[in-house]
Amino acid sequence: MIESLPGHTSADGLPVIRRLTVADLPAIVAIEKDTFTLPWHHNVFASMLTKSEALCLGYVVNGRLTGYLIADMFVDVWHIMNLAVSVACRRRHAGSDLLEAYFEITELDGHRGHTLEVRVSNESAIELYRSFGFVATGVRRGYYSDNREDALIMWKEWEGDSA
Ligand SMILES: CC(C)(COP(=O)(O)OP(=O)(O)OC[C@H]1O[C@@H](n2cnc3c(N)ncnc32)[C@H](O)[C@@H]1OP(=O)(O)O)[C@@H](O)C(=O)NCCC(=O)NCCS
Q1: Would the CB of 5 count as within 6 Å of ligand 1?
Q2: pLDDT, tens digit (0-9, with 9 covering 90-100), for 33-70
Q3: CA distance 140 to 119
Q4: List 117, 143, 157, 159, catalytic entry
Q5: How confident is the model at residue 160 (pLDDT cuts 50, 70, 90)?
Q6: Count of other CB atoms within 10 angstroms of residue 159
Q7: Where does the chain have alpha helices with state H?
Q8: CATH number of the domain at 16-157, please?
Q9: Is the C-beta atom of 44 inside 6 A of ligand 1?
Q10: What kind and span of H or E run contains 154?
């Protein structure tokens, strides 16, 4: 797995995508609490940030973390486990840029594909994932414990070179 993100180098005022570190935890937790009705606990993020198989990317504008993507590899499938952009910074392509960076990195190594779960009511996220080639493959009934909402399962095949 590569350690730098080509095409995402820093320049004045321009956003940077980089790997998250434990120093980002307070900013991550603040965005998470503002975003989700079932926010991940600080310790869950802490353990993902120190897990070698996980991919944890941050979107930074003028030195401030405004979004993140957390993914983990299970056997031969990448699982996008968390994606969030702070409310004030949405609809400026941060989410798309994080996904592009994620695919830049994960497509380098062979695997079966990518999966994720998303609330069936979350039309903006579903639209975003569809625009990246994810398709709905099923539903997990009552997946979310706050309101027993169903989760849509989405899947995208690996598009890398299998030769
Ligand atoms: C989903 C989320 C990460 C998208 O981040 P973002 O930076 O706002 O998304 P982008 O600006 O990159 O949007 C890319 C595309 O996604 C779709 N999209 C994003 N937000 C949308 C909205 N509110 N309504 C409709 N489509 C939307 C559009 O197709 C958009 O393209 P366009 O702006 O050219 O029309 C962000 O809305 C968020 O943090 N939501 C709350 C957390 C969440 O739902 N995470 C996903 C859990 S699985």
Answers
A1: no
A2: 999 999 999 999 999 999 999 999 999 999 999 999 99
A3: 10
A4: 117
A5: confident
A6: 11
A7: 25-35, 42-49, 94-106, 123-131
A8: 3.40.630.30
A9: no
A10: strand 151-157
Nearest CA to ligand 1 atom 1: 125
User: Could you tell me the pLDDT band of residue 7, with boundaries at 50, 70 and 90?
Assistant: very low
Catalytic residue among 68, 123, 129, 144: 129
Nearest CA to ligand 1 atom 25: 124
Residue bearing tokens 């609330």? 119
The residues spanned by each domain of the chain are 16-157
Sorted by sequence, the CB contacts under 8 Å of residue 93 that are 6+ apart come out as: none
Distance 90 CA to ligand 1 centre (A): 7
Question: Residue 13 has what pLDDT?
Answer: 74
* Rounded Cα distance, 68 and 29, in Å: 11
pLDDT at 72: 98
Is the C-beta atom of 94 inside 6 A of ligand 1?
A: yes
